[in-house]
Amino acid sequence: MDRRWAPEKIEQTVDRRHVIGVRLIPAAHDGDTSSVSGREASGVTFGEGARRLRGVSMNKLPSLISAVIGSALDRAARDAGPSDLVWGLLAALRRIRMVVSVQAGYGAASGVDDAIHAVFVERALALFGTPEALHTSLPVKGPAVGRVSAILEDVAMSCLTLNAYFPGNSAMMLAVSTLTERMLDVLGAVPDWALVVRELRITDSDEEEVAASDSRWSAPALH
Fold first, then answer.
1. Whole-angstrom Cα distance, residue 139 to residue 90?
2. What letter would DSSP give residue 214?
3. Hey, which bits of the chain come out as E strands?
4. How far apart are alpha carbons 149 and 40 in whole angstroms?
5. Residue in 96, 123, 115, 122 with CA at minimum distance from that of residue 186
6. CA 77, CA 193: separation in Å to the nearest integer?
7. What's the start-to-end Cα distance of the chain, in Å?
8. Which pTM was predicted?
9. How confident is the model over 30-81, as pLDDT tens digits?
10. How is the beta sheet containing 44-46 ordered, strand by strand?
């Protein structure tokens, strides 16, 4: 794993009830938290992040992933509309899919598609009692979609970093299901799968070049 992006420090911001955020700090900071916001710095900072992560039991992983994504969504939702959040969550899922495609190939990326589709089917069954329910279109992109997408793509990469410290690809698959569930929550419906999978598979040449050359993408996050 590229040392620049190894979780040398994991900062956990907690309130009286639960963890509300986890932020991976690049190793280059090495103790310097000057770039950390006041709210984040008021939390509890745990050093030696990798060793701490290995001590986290599997039964706590779902709450950890949920906290990481929930904190990012809270930040992204500021001055953003529901449509921005839907597209931002979709961008995060696309980022995970692309990393999987770069590291493990098309077949593994299709497995990510299947995991997302399974959440769609489960939600349709819960809402309508059938997976063949009437599906809605994706909303029109709002003015804050770029900022929201950047925040949520970043948390997707953080989840992939976490994935390296847990068996199998459990952290990644939890991130995929959680991001998908949040997207459906915001949308309040089940979108047309054909539209969603088309968006998941859209990449341009610049993005593919970044995926192939950037060590953050090529560092082994998968098992």
1. 12
2. -
3. 9-14, 19-25, 44-46
4. 21
5. 123
6. 25
7. 13
8. 0.72
9. 333 233 333 332 232 333 445 555 556 778 899 999 999 999 999 999 989 9
10. 19-25, 9-14, 44-46
